[in-house]
Amino acid sequence: MRPLVLLALWTLTFAALLEGVPITVIGICLGLSIAGSVRLIHSNRNGENLIMYLVFIAGLFTVAALLFYHQTKDELPLIDETPQSVSGIVAQSPTETAGGNYLRFQWQTAMIGNVLVYVNQEEGPVVIPSGSRCLISEPDLIRPQGPSNPHEFDFATHLYRQNIHNQLFISPHQIRCHPDKAGGFHLIRRFREAGIQKVDDGISGIAPRSSALMKALVFGDRGDIPDDILNAYQRLGIIHLLAVSGLHVGLLTLYLHWILMRIGLTRETAIWLLLFILPFFMIVAGGAPSVVRASVTVMIVILVKKTGQGLMAADAISLVCILLLIMNPALIHHIGFQLSFLTSFTLILSVTILKNESRTRQLMLVTISAQVISAPVTIGAFYEWSVLAVFANLLMVPLVTVILLPTAFLSVLLLNLHQSLAYIPVAIMEGILVAVDSILVQSGERSFAAILFGSLSEWQLLMLCASTLSFFLIWELSGGRRLLKAGIPFLLSLGIVYATPYFDSGTTVTFLDVGQGDAAVIELPFRRGVYMVDTGGIRDWHDADGPYEFTIKPFLRGQGIRKLDKVLLSHGHHDHVGEMCAIVKDIQVDLVLFSGAKEPEPIMLETLHCVQDLGGRVSYSSRGDRWIDGDSYWQVLHPEPGDAFSENDMSMVLHASIQGVTILFTGDVEETVEARLVERNLLTPVDILKVAHHGSRTSSTVQFVAATDPAEAVISAGRHNTYGHPHEDVVNRFLDQGTVLYQTADEGAVQYRIQNGSYEVETFRLEQ
After folding, report:
1. Vertex 351 angle, CA 394 and 40, to 5°
2. At 386, phi and psi to the nearest 5?
């Protein structure tokens, strides 16, 4: 064990502890650090290298002090009063939001710090090159909001880790830019933007797959790769091949060195040119942690060899790790950074059992090692682990590195010389991608391609970390001969984690915050059934997709929900059924029950066709329908067969009794139906009420509230919605009844945990 490698491992551990990353990263880093320390002490047990120990310990304390200083210093500017106008630099290439209606960029200012700016393109065309100095008038700063649902992406924390503390939404007339005032760094960024635009103009129309891959492999921009391809790469454990990584940088360096030597340059000149090209390439490739790590590592190795010093590649990787974390400890939160260095250090520690193997077996063992060491991190971050990763990597790594990567660079080069020169290599690449992408998408869609575990508890994560480290310990102690034996504890821990939800005797009911809409998920004991009541559907201002992609899907994955036994659609309005198509395309749905008018709304017809086209069962539900699922009892109270109310009043009213706790779901029924339910004595006091029609004043009459007498009630409505939901009179009506009232607009998702006739409630909106 080399001291610099060990120092890097302890640096990772300190950074992980200081930054509060998931326990998986801390556990793996700490385990590798301890293993490395034991190995170092064992190799120097006679004490002949006392000076080396002292230097190592001094370095350890120095690194820890620097990390602590960086982590505790306050970088948030103090703003007493927002100025009338502020000047700053456009720090990144502007990009469109998913909905295409806003242009987004990071804006660096001395007065108010870093700001994420959104310019409304619907009010006029906007062109803002990277590096421009821009003056924005009347800035109205908005603090980013934290997540409001379980397992939802924490965009606010993501921005804070980039030292961005505010957002700004402006019209084109509020911004004036001077593109000619950009520095050298931003000139390279503009070169990158021009290169991406050239690929778009010259290739995307005739070879869209090749265009998207070229931008990913050369410029680090995979925004044009279709979602189904990205999902397939993610599920098959080969998503790293679509990023500019260490493998790509290493190959690029070898190719460039070979070309420079072949055109007649001396070795000395070729090396100096590489040292000039690599920093340029880091910026052109997008500056992701993986490309920075690889490029700087290669540069250090080259420089050290130039000076005649003996620095191994492992030392160079370690030095880069230490320097990057000292400069920015928040990098430890980047999944690519975690996986890149953890995999590198694991392979360094495993070199003694890999060096005597054949090339083919080495590739297989390296792939297995990478998948095992990355399992706790990937499961902790993405909730799933790829089963086919080893086979997919064995197939795709040679294809990408030997054929697609060189062809992508060659095509970009030829495109800049003359567009027609690039057509032949692009045609070859397009033909390969058409065949390969089809295979990958079909493989990725298989249920066995990846195992969904869901969000893990701390004890599960620690068990997974321990079993991962034990894999390498057993493997090394056996001299690399007992791979299957080493994998038994690891596979056993995966099995325990997978089976945990099926031993849960409680029920979880979650009213999700889907903005202006309704969506609730019920998880019955021992996973006997998972139900969903309505799906939401109103899109946010910046999203091309609705709430399924950003709210419902992360929740289902985080809960480890692999299928929905029943989806109950209250009625045919977009805010209740709008995401059904997205759901049924992505997850197995056994049965859809719907209620509504005799002539359904177009959105309801579209929804039902989606379900049927994908092989799902659809059934109309009305009063009298009832079923028992374990110790839960369900009955539909409304509508009755032959009813002809408005779409809102045709909403399904559903009464559920789950482990002795009663819940009433009311859709969007209004006072006419509420009065009928009261008159026919169909209502009884309930523990939990989903308030009708988002708290509209046309619902929740005095008589209805008195008849249901809910102990607690949930109003699902959008924050700052334009409908005035919930109405003040309705809120006061429930409060006067003594009801504990929750609003998703204020509290975010509202989650009930039910067991043995009692329940506990938790809300999820995190204010920043």
Report:
1. 150
2. -80, 130
Residue 256 makes CB contacts below 8 A (sequence gap 6+) with 273, 274, 277
**Rounded-to-integer distance, Cα 99 and Cα 250, Å:** 37
For 454-476, the DSSP string reads -SPPHHHHHHHHHHHHHHHHHHH
DSSP-derived letter for residue 87 is: E
Measure the CA–CA gap between 690 and 682, rounded to whole angstroms: 16
How many residues would you count in the chain? 768
Say whether pLDDT at 755 is over 90: yes
Q: How far apart are CA 242 and CA 220, in angstroms?
A: 8
Q: Are 620 and 665 in contact (CB under 8 A)?
A: no
Number of DSSP helices (H) and strands (E) in the chain, helices first: 28, 25
Average pLDDT over residues 652-670: 95
| 762 strand-pairing partners | 751
Contacts of 35 (CB under 8 A, 6+ apart): 349, 469, 472, 473
Q: 533-545: per-residue pLDDT in tens? A: 999 987 665 555 6
Q: What are phi and psi of 299, to 5 degrees?
A: -65, -40
* 485, pLDDT greater than 90: no
pLDDT on residue 51: 63
Q: What is the pLDDT of residue 637?
A: 95
Quick one: tokens of 513? 């915050």
Tokens of 650: 């045709």
Supply the DSSP symbol for 146: -
Q: What is the pLDDT of residue 768?
A: 46
Which residue is it, tokens 């539900």?
621
Give the predicted TM-score (pTM) of the model.
Answer: 0.88
661, 754 Cβ separation under 8 angstroms: yes
Q: 388 pLDDT exceeds 80?
A: yes
Amino acid at 495: G
Residue 458: CB partners within 8 Å, gap ≥ 6? 23
State the DSSP code for 529: -
Q: Is the C-alpha dihedral spanning 341, 27, 558, 460 positive or negative?
A: positive
> Taking Cα atoms as reference points, which of 10, 53, 69 lies closest to residue 318?
10
**530-535 and 563-569: which strand pairing?**
parallel
| Structure tokens that stand for 343 in this block | 């995999």
Contacting residues for 415 by C-beta, under 8 A, at least 6 apart: 198, 199, 202, 203, 421, 422
pLDDT tens digit string along 182-195? 666 777 888 888 88
Tokens of 156: 């606010």
Q: Which residues contact 669 (CB under 8 A, 6 or more apart)?
A: 638, 648, 649, 651, 653, 692, 693, 699
Cα 160 to Cα 156: distance, rounded to the nearest angstrom: 6
Strands (E), 362-512: 384-386, 450-452, 507-511
For 175, the 3-state DSSP assignment is strand
Q: In whole angstroms, what is the distance from residue 113 CA to residue 267 CA?
A: 46
- Contact call for residues 42 and 6 (beta carbons, < 8 A): no
| Residue 705: band (very low, low, confident or very high) from pLDDT cuts 50, 70, 90 | very high
Mean pLDDT of 511-535: 95
